[in-house]
Amino acid sequence: MDIDAWVWWLIIAAGLGIPLVLTAMPELAMFAVGALAASVTAALGGGIVAQVLVFVVVSVALLAVVRPIAARHRAGQTGHPSGIDALKGRQAVVLERVSSAGGRIKLAGEVWSARSLDGDQVFEPGRQVDVVDIDGATAVVM
Fold first, then answer.
1. Fewer CB atoms inside 10 A, N or C side of the chain?
2. What pLDDT score does 78 carry?
3. 135 SS3 class
4. How far apart are the C-alpha atoms of 56 and 50, rounded to whole Å?
5. pLDDT value of residue 77
6. pLDDT in the model for residue 85
7. pLDDT at residue 82 above 80?
8. Of 33, 24, 18, whose CA–CA distance to 63 is shortest?
9. What are phi and psi of 134, to 5 degrees?
Protein backbone atom coordinates (compact mmCIF):
# COMPACT_ATOMS: atom_id res chain seq x y z
CA MET A 1 0.00 0.00 0.00
CA ASP A 2 1.55 3.26 -1.13
CA ILE A 3 0.26 6.34 0.73
CA ASP A 4 1.12 9.80 -0.56
CA ALA A 5 3.22 12.09 1.65
CA TRP A 6 0.43 14.63 2.02
CA VAL A 7 -1.77 11.95 3.62
CA TRP A 8 0.96 11.15 6.14
CA TRP A 9 1.14 14.83 7.07
CA LEU A 10 -2.64 14.87 7.58
CA ILE A 11 -2.32 11.80 9.82
CA ILE A 12 0.40 13.59 11.81
CA ALA A 13 -1.81 16.70 12.10
CA ALA A 14 -4.71 14.59 13.39
CA GLY A 15 -2.34 12.76 15.71
CA LEU A 16 -1.31 16.11 17.20
CA GLY A 17 -4.92 17.25 17.41
CA ILE A 18 -6.05 14.39 19.62
CA PRO A 19 -3.66 15.12 22.51
CA LEU A 20 -4.46 18.82 22.04
CA VAL A 21 -8.08 18.13 22.92
CA LEU A 22 -7.16 15.84 25.80
CA THR A 23 -4.45 18.02 27.37
CA ALA A 24 -5.44 21.55 26.27
CA MET A 25 -1.85 22.33 25.27
CA PRO A 26 -2.12 25.03 22.57
CA GLU A 27 1.43 24.31 21.39
CA LEU A 28 0.17 21.06 19.87
CA ALA A 29 -2.26 23.05 17.72
CA MET A 30 0.64 25.06 16.35
CA PHE A 31 2.48 21.88 15.41
CA ALA A 32 -0.73 20.50 13.86
CA VAL A 33 -1.02 23.63 11.69
CA GLY A 34 2.61 23.15 10.69
CA ALA A 35 1.77 19.58 9.65
CA LEU A 36 -1.18 20.85 7.62
CA ALA A 37 1.12 23.33 5.85
CA ALA A 38 3.55 20.49 5.12
CA SER A 39 0.64 18.46 3.76
CA VAL A 40 -0.21 21.27 1.35
CA THR A 41 3.45 21.46 0.32
CA ALA A 42 3.48 17.73 -0.37
CA ALA A 43 0.21 17.93 -2.33
CA LEU A 44 1.73 20.67 -4.50
CA GLY A 45 4.68 18.44 -5.30
CA GLY A 46 7.31 19.70 -2.84
CA GLY A 47 10.03 17.26 -1.87
CA ILE A 48 10.57 15.83 1.60
CA VAL A 49 13.13 18.51 2.46
CA ALA A 50 10.66 21.26 1.51
CA GLN A 51 7.90 19.53 3.49
CA VAL A 52 9.99 19.25 6.66
CA LEU A 53 11.26 22.80 6.22
CA VAL A 54 7.69 24.15 5.87
CA PHE A 55 6.61 22.14 8.92
CA VAL A 56 9.45 23.53 11.05
CA VAL A 57 9.14 27.13 9.81
CA VAL A 58 5.35 27.31 10.24
CA SER A 59 5.43 25.62 13.66
CA VAL A 60 8.23 27.82 15.01
CA ALA A 61 6.65 30.97 13.57
CA LEU A 62 3.35 30.17 15.23
CA LEU A 63 5.08 29.43 18.53
CA ALA A 64 7.02 32.71 18.29
CA VAL A 65 4.01 34.82 17.39
CA VAL A 66 0.94 33.24 18.98
CA ARG A 67 2.31 32.23 22.40
CA PRO A 68 3.33 35.78 23.44
CA ILE A 69 -0.01 37.16 22.27
CA ALA A 70 -1.87 34.48 24.24
CA ALA A 71 0.26 35.16 27.33
CA ARG A 72 -0.49 38.89 27.14
CA HIS A 73 -4.16 38.14 26.69
CA ARG A 74 -4.20 35.83 29.71
CA ALA A 75 -2.33 38.36 31.85
CA GLY A 76 -4.64 41.20 30.81
CA GLN A 77 -7.90 39.50 31.66
CA THR A 78 -8.11 41.37 34.95
CA GLY A 79 -8.68 44.65 33.05
CA HIS A 80 -12.38 44.88 33.95
CA PRO A 81 -13.23 44.78 37.65
CA SER A 82 -16.02 42.44 38.63
CA GLY A 83 -17.86 41.48 41.78
CA ILE A 84 -17.18 43.70 44.76
CA ASP A 85 -14.20 45.29 43.01
CA ALA A 86 -16.63 46.81 40.49
CA LEU A 87 -18.53 48.52 43.32
CA LYS A 88 -15.54 50.38 44.71
CA GLY A 89 -15.54 54.00 43.60
CA ARG A 90 -19.26 54.06 42.78
CA GLN A 91 -21.77 56.44 44.31
CA ALA A 92 -24.59 55.36 46.56
CA VAL A 93 -27.58 56.99 48.25
CA VAL A 94 -27.96 56.89 52.02
CA LEU A 95 -31.23 55.21 53.07
CA GLU A 96 -30.69 55.11 56.84
CA ARG A 97 -28.25 57.29 58.74
CA VAL A 98 -24.67 56.05 58.22
CA SER A 99 -22.01 56.46 60.90
CA SER A 100 -19.06 54.42 62.07
CA ALA A 101 -21.57 52.18 63.86
CA GLY A 102 -23.48 51.36 60.68
CA GLY A 103 -26.37 52.32 58.44
CA ARG A 104 -27.95 51.48 55.08
CA ILE A 105 -27.27 52.65 51.52
CA LYS A 106 -28.63 51.88 48.07
CA LEU A 107 -25.72 50.77 45.89
CA ALA A 108 -26.13 49.51 42.31
CA GLY A 109 -29.86 48.98 42.86
CA GLU A 110 -29.40 46.94 46.04
CA VAL A 111 -29.61 47.81 49.72
CA TRP A 112 -26.29 47.41 51.52
CA SER A 113 -25.22 47.81 55.11
CA ALA A 114 -22.68 50.59 55.36
CA ARG A 115 -20.37 52.38 57.73
CA SER A 116 -18.39 55.58 57.39
CA LEU A 117 -14.68 55.51 56.68
CA ASP A 118 -13.97 58.22 59.22
CA GLY A 119 -15.34 57.50 62.68
CA ASP A 120 -16.57 61.09 63.09
CA GLN A 121 -18.48 61.31 59.80
CA VAL A 122 -22.25 60.93 59.76
CA PHE A 123 -24.32 60.85 56.58
CA GLU A 124 -28.06 61.56 56.65
CA PRO A 125 -30.69 59.88 54.43
CA GLY A 126 -30.83 61.15 50.84
CA ARG A 127 -27.17 62.17 50.72
CA GLN A 128 -24.84 60.84 48.00
CA VAL A 129 -21.76 59.01 49.27
CA ASP A 130 -18.76 57.39 47.59
CA VAL A 131 -17.97 53.73 48.21
CA VAL A 132 -14.27 53.40 49.01
CA ASP A 133 -14.17 49.75 50.06
CA ILE A 134 -16.27 46.66 50.67
CA ASP A 135 -15.61 44.97 54.01
CA GLY A 136 -17.39 41.63 53.97
CA ALA A 137 -21.02 42.56 53.30
CA THR A 138 -20.59 46.16 54.45
CA ALA A 139 -19.78 49.10 52.20
CA VAL A 140 -17.29 51.57 53.61
CA VAL A 141 -18.31 55.06 52.48
CA MET A 142 -17.17 58.66 52.63
1. N
2. 58
3. strand
4. 10
5. 61
6. 82
7. no
8. 33
9. -120, 120
